[in-house]
Structures are given as C-alpha cells and as structure tokens.
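Trying the structure run again after the queue cleared.
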Amino acid sequence: MWSKRSSIESLTLFSGVGATLIINPWFQLDPINIPKMVLLVATAAFLAPWTLISFRGASRLERIVFISSLLFVLASTIAIFISNVSKTQQIWGTWGRSTGLATYTAFITILLTSVIISSFSYRRKARLIFERVGYLVSGYALMQWAEIDPIDWSQKVLVSTLGNINFMSSLLGMASISYVSRTLFESCAFHTKIFYLSVITLNLMLILSSESIQGIAVLLAGVILRVTFFLRDRKSFRVSGLFFVLSASTGLMGFLGTASIGPFKFLSQETVLYRTDYWRAALRMARENPWFGVGFDSYGDFYRLYRDESAILRTGPQRVTNAAHNIFLDVGSGAGLIALLLFLMIFGVTLYIIFSAFSKNSFDEDSIFWSALFIGFIVFCSISINQIGVGIWGFIAMGLVIGSARTSVGSEEKLEDQRSSFSSKKKPGPSKVRVNTVFEGNKKSQSRIYILGATQISIALIVSIFAGQQARVDISLREAIRNRDLDVAYKISFSSTAQDQHREITFARLAELGRGQDALRLAMRTTHLNERNWQGWVFIISSELSSYEEKREAALKLLELDPKNSLVKQEVLPLIR
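Done. Tokens:
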C-alpha cells in the first residue's frame, strides 16, 4: 500500500539518489538541472499529502519546523505574485539553475517527510545509501579525470553528474565526512577502514584536481563537529566545547582570509572576492525590497542594477551572475526578509537540537554523522548556489536530525529496531516513541488508505505534467535547433512555458541564419514578457532592422538596468540626446 511507512521511506531515499544522479545529456538543452527538478518535485508531490496528515501529534520543536515551513512556502508564493518578473521563471527557476519555488517547496516537503520517518534504523539505512551515492559520483568523476567519459560533454571538466566543479567538490566533501567518521571514530574491521581511507584519498585527489575549495571547506566543517562529539564522549563538555569554538573561529578567519579580510589574507582567492560582490548586491536587493524581495530566483534580472562600482572595476562590467552564491541571501533577496527569517528558523531549530544532543551526549553515530553533514551543508549554503543534487541531502540531513530528537541513543525505538533486526520471528513490542503515521499502527478503515493513495497519485500526476512541460520545451527546442528547423524553434519560443534563455538562444540563431526580422520580433517578445531581459534589449539596439524609436527605448532601458556601466553609457547616450 502506497501509504505505508516503508514505501514512504524508500521514496524519500529515491528522491535523494535520483536528484543527485539523474542527467539527460542526450535530449535536453539543460541536461543537469531540469531532469533533477522534475524528478524532485514529482516525488515530493507524491509525499506531500502523507506528510501533511502525519504531522498530527508532533513534538513542540517539530511543530515549530512544520509551521515555519508552511509559512515559508506561503510567504514565497506571495512574493511571486507581487513581483513583476516572469511567473514561470519564479515557479520553476531560472534556466540552468531550476531553483524556483517548486524546487524549494519540494526540498521543504522532503525535509518534513524525513522528520517523520527519522528513526535509528532509517538514519543508518539512509547513511549507507548516501555513501553509495558518493561512490558513484566519485567513480564518474574519476572517469572524467582519466578522460574516459562515455558522454561527450561540451566541456571536459570534473563535474560528475552535478554540472559544476564546485557542486561535485561539495558533494564529495559531504560524503567524505561519513568516510572519515567510519575510519577514525567508529568500530569497523581493519580492511573496511582501509577501504574508506582509499575512498577519502580518491575524493581529496578529485577535489584538489578540480581546484575547488568548497569540498575541503565542507569536509573540514563536518569533521570538526564529528571530532567535537568524539571529545564530548571521551573527555568533557568543556574540552569539546573549547575545541569546537577554537576550530570554528580558525575556520571562519581562514574563510575571511580567502576574501582578503583579517590575518589570513594570504589565502585570498579571486572566486571568493567575486562572491563578495554578489553578496553585497543581494544585501542591497533585500534592503531595498525587504518584505517580498525582487522575485523568487530572479537575482540575475536585478544584479546589474544593485551591484556596486567595485564589482565593475574588479573585472569589468561584463561579469554578471544569476545567483547570489549564498543560499540565504538568495532567499532573502528573492522572497524577502519574512521568508528568510522563516527559512532560518528551520536551520535554527536543527542547530538547537544538535547543541542539546551534544550537551547531553545523547546522539548515536548515525545521528552525529547527519549533524556533521548538516554543518557542512551550512558552509555550502554560505558560499554556493543551492544545486539540486547537493542541496537535497542537506534538507534530508536537517529532517533526520530534527526527527532524531525523539529517538536518541538508548530510546525504546532503538531497542525495538535492534530486536527486529536479530529476530524476524518475534514480533517487537510496542514502542514508547511516537510512530509518525496515520494509517499504520491503528484500525482506520481501508477506504481512508485508498483515498490517501489516490490523492497522492493524483497530485503527483498533476505536478508532473506541469513540471514536465519545462522538460518538454527544453527537449523540443534542442531538437529543433539541431535540425535547423527554426520555424519550430520560433513557435516553441513564443510559448508561455518557454524560458528567457530559450528565446535568447532562438533569436540569436535566427539572426545568424539571416532571419533578422523574426529574430527582432522574438527579442521584442522577450522584453515584453520580461522587461528586465538584458539580452533582448541589447539585440534590439544592435539590430539594423530596429527603428530609431525602438533603439531609443532599448537605450533607455539598458541605462535603467545597468546605471553604473560606463561602457553602456558611451554606447547608448548618443541615441537619447
């Protein structure tokens, strides 16, 4: 029966595995993010009805997380309707990112489901699955490093199934937290420890080869927490707390050093300096649009307006981005401070639970690992984009940690899990820990079970159809462009489900092949749907077929969108004098 706990557990893990590994380089223009987004939101849509109903009888902390999560989705939805940016973009996310409200709602759903199903045995099982996902990501990255990748990607870099070296690096860092814990702090056979040590070595080699420090930062953050719990168990609360404070302070100073701040300026890195430009722009967006932001996943439409002059002078005005490279700032600038505070509330409850377990020394090994992964995820959130294949495990970790507050070491549920694993003939006795299901463990009628199952399937199908439209448009446009069928590409680009980037690709190709009038018409359509589309206005002002009035309008708009860009002023001012 679909509403059974075992099915929900398996499907939740499937969402994590699938979101990390699924790719479609054979048919999609965006082979990484759109397939992950469709799978994630469809799975979450199926889980949502069961999850909402099963939160009855939740603990106080779980209720706080539940209410904060629902209010976050509500505040973000309101932000979408208030913003004048494309609703399609805000719901499904910017093309190449796919981190719109649908993805965040799916993340929240997976988090809440993980809270409900968190148990000693499930945390152990989920950890084993995550480790195996790490092996697959490492194995594929190794093939890319050895230049024996069976897929002919447009760029030959170490990205595995995640599309970017930073995301690959972070995922390997997260997985290595578990391998380090197994090797140094947990009871394993000697040959097993040698195996884990080999995987750690491989992952470090891949991370260093990618030249991305994100994986190292994530790994160190997680290992610091793991060592802290080890010292808490072997020494004392004071010693372990002092170690954590000193280590975290050193790590923070090292991070600031990469941004040329503080005593460790020798660690300065260009990419981190760029991120400080993006963060300042996001802070300005949030400060000037405090209640509901500029529009969900719409950072790129406003970056030119809100960046400061130092960002332009650092490398020139051509360097732009469509994400703040900080998940919290992305949420705050896109959906507003209300949504951000609700989002931070969920993180805050998780940190509170970790601290409480640390003070009581009450976590089992697997709960400590998920806590360490969560700390690594916070580092990832602070310096990166919420890539679906990486982010899903951060939200699963949060849910499992929050749920572990009621299933700590020595609890009745752990004892029952152990009994059931050693004796399949003896039926376990009733657990004193709340079992978070509605239709299991009680005598509700079968009809209600079927109603729930039918509701789950119906909602999942509806969401899959809408999400699938994003994949369908992307596939159709890729096929049309490959076949040089520009009439079909032109028609697809005019559809309401197409993204700005689809239109930009199409009008650029139309212009290349001598269909300037159609290209101009599509560029004007693009700016009509999104008046902040930079490429559309640039095409209009550059086209020989544009009228003087159209060029003048484009010139005024470009000045409005990027007022600090001196190059733009030089080019367009003659048109408006």
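The radius of gyration is 25 Å. Worth checking whether this holds up in the mutant runs.
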